[in-house]
TrEMBL record:
SUPFAM superfamilies in UniProt: EreA/ChaN-like
InterPro entries referenced in this protein's UniProt entry, alphabetically: Emycin_Estase (IPR007815), Hydrolase/PRTase-associated (IPR052036), UCP036794_erythomycin (IPR014622)
Signal peptide (from-to): none
Protein name, UniProt field: Erythromycin esterase family protein
Length: 433
């Protein structure tokens, strides 16, 4: 276990200051020619995690030619951001209207001013570029079952009537259960054969996707929505069984989607992934592995090591965060208590209470020190600051990540306030965040 006594090793000389975009030079040097950059976050509601990921992403896009951002969000909603930043037809007048589409709880994860500011930058970056050179923004997650079903049926009816019949058959498997309270309940009672219908649809869409060219990226949109349908069934079926399999199904889906995106772009494509630390930090360096769990970071390292993979985690000592008291509860700003004793966050604060960037493989001593197991805070969309000790994941930090960004005190991000009907409540937060 790392303790503050470790300061005798004089680790400070290996810490890089973290005050502005120029301070990211050591991270960009570490990234080099790597094609897979995974950027984490220790919560889904912290301003600085979003803005620092945006700063890193801007430099990677401008200086190293990265192709797209892939995030822990639903494909249909994120694809609307992708259309808007690329100025595709009927993509919306402004980013506020686009972000209103994120109406599934927790809305604040993507419907916030930090994303509005970054999307506005992406649109400006893409302006005047050829379509093939425009930076994209895509969702990797598996939750959007109903939306994906509706999108693919509507689209195929126009473009591929024969395959549309398969889509309707798959949709009809689940339609009687659409009004139920949870996806999981659908798969406890859905009729047999739904899985076969969905898999048949996915195969058909993949075989015919080259024909879907009346809209830009229509073939990609059709294929990913079909993939969501196929994997959503496996995910919610596993969740209905109350086992841990649903985690693995979900993360495997996100990697399968990521691989599909990379295959869709050219052979030199490079991707930046934005997800929670629990997804992008290698599961083998935590207790997850002993429970049979894997994650995106582990799978990407295993599958794409030769192409260069860099995992960067985030953390903070104290501050505030946007979260809910329970699943589906109203979002609210909550305090983030000081990191508990013998945690990574407490160690980094006590040793040197400044924002810092750490590149673990720059020095053997540094890597060895942070390979000792230590508690590392993880805050989800559901959070209780009074139950703080339950939020720490024992981690071998230098094995879990290649780099780590520590912000001593953070603040909650700034959501777009949405009414239940999706109507935007005006806010005053500036776009220049």
């Amino acid at each position: 276990m790392i303790s503050v006594k470790t300061e005798k090793k004089d680790l400070e000389k290996y810490y890089h200051p973290l005050n502005n975009s120029e301070d990211l030079d050591p991270l960009l040097e570490r990234i080099g020619d790597s094609r897979y950059i995974l950027l984490g976050e220790a919560s889904h509601g912290t301003h600085e995690y979003y803005t620092w990921r945006a700063k890193i992403s801007k430099r990677l896009i401008e200086e190293k030619g990265f192709s797209f951002i892939a995030v822990e969000g639903d494909w249909p909603d994120c694809y609307k951001i992708n259309k808007w930043i690329k100025d595709y037809p009927d993509s919306g007048e402004n980013i506020q209207d686009v972000l209103k589409e994120f109406d599934r709880w927790p809305t604040w994860m993507w419907a916030n001013w930090e994303i509005a500011a970054f999307a506005s930058w992406l649109k400006q970056y893409n302006r005047g570029r050829e379509d093939k050179n425009k930076a994209g923004f895509y969702g990797l997650d598996v939750y959007s079952l109903w939306d994906s079903m509706e999108i693919i049926v509507d689209y195929l009816e126009k473009e591929d009537p024969e395959t549309a019949k398969l889509a309707k058959n798959a949709f009809q498997c689940f339609e009687p259960y659409k009004a139920r309270d949870s996806y999981a309940s659908v798969f406890r009672s859905a009729k047999e054969g739904c899985k076969d219908e969905v898999i048949k649809l996915l195969k058909e869409v993949r075989q015919n996707s080259h024909k879907y060219d009346t809209e830009k990226e229509a073939d990609l949109n059709a294929e990913i929505n079909a993939l969501v349908m196929a994997n959503a069934e496996k995910y919610y079926e596993a969740m209905a069984g109350f086992g841990d399999d649903s985690w693995n199904v979900r993360d495997r889906h996100m990697v399968e989607t990521l691989n599909t995106l990379m295959d869709y772009h050219d052979d030199n494509a490079k991707v930046i992934v934005w997800e929670h630390n629990t997804h992008i930090g290698d599961a083998r360096a935590t207790g997850m592995a002993s429970n049979g769990l894997l994650n995106v970071g582990q799978l990407v390292r295993e599958q794409h090591k030769k192409d260069g993979v860099v995992l960067a985690g985030f953390g903070s000592y104290k501050g505030s965060v946007m979260a809910g008291n329970s699943w589906g509860a109203p979002m609210k700003k909550m305090r983030v208590p000081e990191g508990i004793e013998n945690s990574l966050e407490n160690f980094l604060h006590q040793y040197d209470p400044k924002d810092k960037l750490i590149i673990f493989d720059e020095n053997k001593e540094l890597a060895e020190t942070f390979s000792e197991r230590i508690g590392h805070r993880a805050i989800g969309v559901v959070y209780d600051p009074d139950w703080e000790r339950g939020n720490y994941v024992p981690s071998k930090v230098s094995e879990r990540y290649d780099a780590f960004l520590f912000i001593d005190e953070t603040k909650a991000l700034h959501p777009l306030k949405l009414k239940p009907n999706g109507e935007l409540i005006p806010e005053t937060y500036p776009f220049g965040i």
